[in-house]
Specification:
Elements lengths: L7 H9 L9 H15 L9 H16 L6 H17 L14 H14 L11 H4 L2
The chain binds zinc ion (ZN).
The site of zinc ion has 6 residues, from helix 2.
């Protein structure tokens, strides 16, 4: 089986879990040595005074154990969402009632409709008289 060089995660696992992965490969060993060299270099945090770390520890402790405040913004947003949902679920207004027609109007509209939709030309209308008894 061909060796695959360790990637960053593999190097991190080999360094912190003390596994022997990549120990036989000079490339992986060199990469691991470079990472160890970087880790041993002085860091900016090393120059901070103990007073800084004590203050940071105290602030973290206070933040963790502070009593929970009510979340007014979340409560307000939830109220708005509920109000919008209730408003959206109101029944729709009833459709407007159709206009009322009187009997004369209906008769007139019917005559207009019959006149407009007549198939027979007006000049041939008297021909019905020939067959009428
Ligand atoms: Zn390798």
């Amino acid at each position: 089986m061909e060796h695959q060089h360790l990637d960053f995660d593999g190097l991190m696992n080999a360094m912190y879990e003390s596994t022997a992965a990549g120990a036989d490969c000079p490339t992986c060993r060199a990469a691991m040595e470079r990472m160890n060299e970087l880790r041993r270099q002085p860091r900016a945090e090393d120059k901070l005074s103990p007073w800084f770390w004590g203050r940071q520890r105290r602030e973290i402790h206070e933040a963790v154990f502070a009593p929970a405040r009510p979340r007014w913004i979340a409560i307000g947003a939830l109220g708005c969402v509920l109000a919008a949902a209730v408003a959206a679920m109101q029944p729709a207004p009833p459709p407007p009632a159709p206009p009322a027609f009187s009997q004369e109007d209906l008769k007139f509209l019917q005559e207009v409709s019959e006149t407009a939709n007549r198939v027979e030309p007006r000049v041939l209308a008297p021909m019905h008289l020939l067959w009428a008894r």
